[in-house]
User: Fold this.
Amino acid sequence: MALLSLNCISFSYGRTPVLKDISMDFEQGKIYCIVGKSGAGKTTLLSILSGLAVPDSGVILYNGKDIKDIDKYEYRSKYIGVIFQSFNLITKFTALENVVLSMDIAGVKGSQRDKKAKALELLKSVGLDEDEANRRVLKLSGGQQQRVAIARALSYDAQIILADEPTGNLDEETQNEIMEIFCTLARQGKCVILVSHSKRVADSCDECLTLSKIK
Assistant:
């Protein structure tokens, strides 16, 4: 059974159609890539998957349940982890503080000490040591900030990870390292869904959904 399903999803901005009759099943343990030319609706579809945008028609099922029947806050803060292209980190906070804050918002139980310990483990798992974890985000490189964003998305154990152009502004070596993190997450049972223009990223995924611009 698919963890997340799109059934005949359509979406328009005013009178401009962007998506039409999109259907796709997403399973645990796999990494997917949404590809297509600019204007084809890739980021829009990611917003719909995350519950940030509502389709004009069609149904989205999470574990067989229409997400319209799931509390939107619960869906976004517990089941879906989103990694934005611009990272959306709080720059005046440290990497560690960003991850702990994400736990607090999601209602993760435990003391602040326990949350900090878990956050350090998550940051270590994506390649950041304790010194880097305690640096303000602005003192980190783009690749390091991307790792913080990944750790934050994992902080409340979401089953689905969504990422918009996660390697777009990174050098080739860092791109490969970030993709290896995503592949590891899929092997650990996460459902990972990426948006990317990169053929290399697409070739690293199990399946691709190609969107075409509606004329």
User: Anything to note?
Assistant: The chain has eight helices and nine strands. Residues 28-38+71-208 form a domain with the Rossmann fold fold (CATH 3.40.50.300). The beta strands are 4-13, 16-26, 31-35, 57-62, 65-66, 80-83, 160-164, 191-195, 207-210.
